[in-house]
Amino acid sequence: DLLSDSRVVRRMFKTVTSRLRGIEDTLRHEERMAALGKMAAQLMHELNNPAAAVARSVQELERIQKMLGEEAVALASEFWGETPIQPSAREGELTALDRSDAESALVTWLEDTGVPDPWDLAPGLVDAGWDRDQLATGLSGVPDEVRHHMARWLGLRASADQVLSELGIGARRIAELVRVVKEYSFLDRAPIQEIDVTHGIRDTLILLKHKLRSVDVTLSFADDLRTVEAPGRDLNQVWTNLIDNAADVMADGGSLSITARNEGAEVVVEVSDSGGGVPDDVIDRIFDPFFTTKEPGKGTGLGLHTVQTIINRLGGSISITSDDVGTTFEVRLPAAI
Question: Among 37, 43, 171, 185, which is least packed, fewest CB within 10 Å?
């Protein structure tokens, strides 16, 4: 009977253990999917800004094209051919006050010359390098009856150049975000390779930029930092969890410091926040599975446990120190041979 009872207990224990492992695997999968969902939301927000800027710039270009008109273009070609007059090179950047004065002076001259909507044209002219005296000198040889057309043409052309520059910035930003996502997810890459941890950290910061908008981020990476052998996606999940948690505790602003250095045969990364620290009764359980201080529905309690599991699997270690100012996570990874 005792032997039979012992077998029953062992079977029950195996069943319970198996179910617990299954539950933990399911929750860990949910944690990864939740992290992916948050990352996707951040990415959509970051993509929305440059995409909206591109759309606005296209509309502005269409408006400028209509305003230019064939007559003004023909007149410009008649006087200057394919090479319109250009402003002299400007030395240094204008201060906000100097820029305001330059725009006001141009508006006055444009109004006196009979150019409509001078306030719409002045910013583009200033960006292109024009000031009132240069514009007046450049148009001095143009007949009075068409001078206002030529001045308007130059202003619209400068505005078009400004919008094209904004289009380029928006397009490059979109391309950069697509590149970051591809590198972050390590698409078309070997599962394990030599990784420069700073690349993953920088990409993670770009993807979490919106969440860190009120946080002052400081980076300090050793110039001769060694690489580590690791699955890139797993390592990026480590940085995402640590930086995302830091952002959560500094929702009202703060400072985030990330350092990376060589120490013996290890690469050491420290992620420090000014989020007020972790209570003593919590810090000893911070890596426990299913433990979380977040509100119900806002965390599975597997984020830092997953981080520790990944780092341990790579032969590294993670530790935490905290005081009433903030918290520092120290990640140690074996450097590639």
Answer: 37
194 strand-pairing partners: 229
Task: Give the DSSP H or E segment for 274.
Answer: none
Distance, in Å, from the CA atom of 328 to the CA atom of 321, rounded to the nearest integer, reads 5
Residues comprising the chain, all counted = 337
Check pLDDT > 90 for residue 261: yes
d(C-alpha 291, C-alpha 85), whole Å: 69
CB-based contacts of 135, cutoff 8 Å, min separation 6: 87, 106, 109, 125, 151, 154
DSSP reduced 3-state for 83? coil
CA Rg value for the chain: 30
Which residues contact residue 228 at a Cβ distance below 8 angstroms, ignoring those fewer than 6 apart? Answer: 194, 195, 197, 235, 267, 314, 333, 334, 335, 336
Contact 109, 132 (CB under 8 A): yes
- Taking CA atoms, 325 is separated from 253, 258, 275, 331, in Å, by 13, 16, 7, 20
Does this model's pTM top 0.90? My answer is no
d(CA 270, CA 220): 10
Amino acid identity, position 280? D
Q: How many CB atoms lie within 10 A of CB 328?
A: 16
Q: Which residue has the higher pLDDT, 121 or 329?
A: 329
Of 171, 139, 187, 152, which is closest to residue 55 (Cα–Cα)?
Answer: 171
